[in-house]
Amino acid sequence: MSALLLLPDPTATGAALGPELAAVLADVQEALPDVLVSASLAELVERGEQDVVALPLVPGAAGYDPGILELALRQQAPGATVTLARALGPHPLLVELAAQRVLAALDGAAPAEVGVLVVGPGSHDPEANAEVAKVARLLQEGRDFALVEVAYLADTGPDVAAGLARCRALGAGRVVVLPHAVVDPGFAARVAERAAGEEGVHVAGHLAASPELTALVVERHHEARHGDLRMSCDVCAYRELQPHPHEHAGA
């Protein structure tokens, strides 16, 4: 049996992370029944697993150092082989999941009447901030939302208040605020606090447990085990996305 280590976003906080992460672990375990899925490297090593794929549940590659993370994991488990999978996004499955969260929060309004404000955590790393903007653009492409804008919670601008003001200035009567995080209800709560009291503003659910997230984790695990022959990024229009078979025993 192979092993898959699912790491929560290193910036995620809050006691509610436990059940959120547990739901993701359960869904992935069901999708990969012959793979031991855990959020604890120590637990995997104690059970005798020496070949582990580690996958950070982060929406983008920027903002953390994969090399440092991989080194830290290997130091925690001397003798074990730890392979670090790619970050989750930007990826069409996450963009589709984001669109579903927005549509669920429309409160009866037509998409064409609604502006969307994608809120990222914010960083001193320009690439991390740019990834949020990329997701916002991908969210708008091919959909009927009146507009999609970006804001950040800290370290850079625009902040949530400025982002909402921009949506209003551009003509959005209603705005859906979308927290750009995977398994971090604490972040979503902080975003909701910043948007509280604003008339016509609804906060969408963040990107928690879902069939889309499970499928993407399975895809990343398959890549780490078997390689990923690709000429471009996940969202490139010229990349032919082939669904990976769920090879349970050898996945």
Automatic annotation (TrEMBL):
<keyword id="KW-0479">Metal-binding</keyword>
<dbReference type="InterPro" id="IPR050963">
    <property type="entry name" value="Sirohydro_Cobaltochel/CbiX"/>
</dbReference>
<dbReference type="Pfam" id="PF01903">
    <property type="entry name" value="CbiX"/>
</dbReference>
<dbReference type="InterPro" id="IPR002762">
    <property type="entry name" value="CbiX-like"/>
</dbReference>
<protein>
    <submittedName>
        <fullName>Sirohydrochlorin chelatase</fullName>
    </submittedName>
</protein>
<keyword id="KW-0456">Lyase</keyword>
